[in-house]
């Protein structure tokens, strides 16, 4: 029987990870943060990696093994047996991730890794192309959206809580630049799947967004 897959896509800072964790907990299944996979690759290979040639990148990535364990909010994503930590959670690494994410060779590598995790587990899968490219047959697809001002504010609070204070206006500019690149790349650009439910979360509380997701899955 095909496994339950719920896809959660949307732009930077919209709250996908928070919702993915909560929904995964509600459904007692793991969540997969695919942004963390792009970030981990970018972090490991360094800022300039997106300019490397394909063969070199392929060679490096051949040594990368992503694994998922746990359930709900305690799902753990590891790279080569080591849990991916908060070192990837800066806007700078987000931009490096967005840069490598434009490369077909990186997307092909991660597509295989993501699908092979999806073969083994029911998942709440969050990212940019979960509903369009990676799990097009998923029975439940959501696209979360919000104004860039609101997303910058949310990211600002999230970073502050992690002890990584940032400047609000600068965050807004970084998020806008990243979104533009994520939406305009040729391979698997950020966009809602035709059959996704779009939720504008700008004026919604976390509880309201969560309830909308749970309603959508129950339907
Ligand atoms: O969700 P995030 O901010 O952690 O993602 C970081 C970057 O990774 C994002 O700007 C684009 C890329 N990404 C992607 O291209 N496809 C995904 N499914 C997830 C992330």
From TrEMBL:
The keyword Transmembrane does not apply. This is Cytidylate kinase. Pfam families: Cytidylate_kin. One of its GO terms (molecular function) is ATP binding. Belongs to the cytidylate kinase family. Type 1 subfamily. InterPro entries: Cytidylate_kin, Cytidylate_kinase_dom, P-loop_NTPase. Gene3D superfamilies: P-loop containing nucleotide triphosphate hydrolases. It comes from Pseudodesulfovibrio piezophilus (strain DSM 21447 / JCM 15486 / C1TLV30) (Desulfovibrio piezophilus).
